[in-house]
Amino acid sequence: MSLIKMYIIKMLGYMIVALPFYIIGRVIFLKKKKKRVEPTRELILALFVLYIIGLSSQTIIPMWNAGILGETGEFYFDVYLFNDAAHVNLLPFSTISQYFFTTNANVDNWGGLSLINIVGNIFVFSPIGIFVPILWRRLQTFPKILLLGLSVTCFIELVQLFIGRSTDIDDVILNTMGVVIGYGIYVLLKFPYQKIAFR
Fold first, then answer.
1. Is 95 helix (H, G, I), strand (E, B) or coil?
2. Quick check: 88 and 106 in contact, CB under 8 A?
């Protein structure tokens, strides 16, 4: 649970920083375009944009570190684009099977970490399947959501090749599954949102 809490805190940090910039930018955009403001739609759009920023912070934004050196008082900002622990897996279900059939001596801890990885990879992407069809009518069909989910997750894994993060085809499978689960939730709850979607 501490690992999940750590990721949530990191995502919230980016979302909180981005919130005032989003509000200012959105207000300027709406005034410039003279668009009618629908409060419910604007709230959902804001939540979606902040979610995407939080998701990006943990997937496609390179790891970085900043601070002030105690000895010299100099400011430093380091970006890490290489990681010796990063790996590439192109064999479907290879990593997933390892989660279930491991010979690791510390089975209890590994099992907990495996569950976090599986559940996390699925449900961190489920909001896409919920928010997107609520906000855009043209993307309210299952084939379009499935294609969107697959495209987004493939893009993320491709970017991770160049920023020192692991790339895994099983992440694509689990993340896309999460988008589909999110879409299922949208289908069950879609009626109150039918009138607020963008065309």
1. helix
2. no
Structural domain includes residue 30: no
CB 79, CB 64: distance < 8 Å: yes
Does 81 fall in a domain?
no
How many Å apart are CA 133 and CA 19, to the nearest integer?
23
* pTM for the full predicted model: 0.86
Structural domain boundaries enclosing 92: 87-199
Report yes or no on 72 lying in a domain. Answer: no
Whether residue 99 is contained in a domain is answered as: yes
- The answer to whether the Cα torsion of 90, 91, 93, 97 is positive or negative is negative
φ, ψ of residue 75 to 5 degrees: the values are -80, 140
Distances (CA, A) of 29 to 15, 26, 33, 35, 128: 20, 5, 6, 9, 23
Number of domains in the chain: 1
Contacts of residue 47, defined as CB under 8 A and 6 or more positions apart, other chains included, come to: 131
CA 98 → CA 20, 86, 117, distances in Å? 43, 17, 11
How does pLDDT run across 120-171, given as a tens digit for each residue? Answer: 899 999 999 999 999 999 999 999 999 999 999 999 999 999 998 899 999 9
Residue 110 has pLDDT above 60, yes or no: no
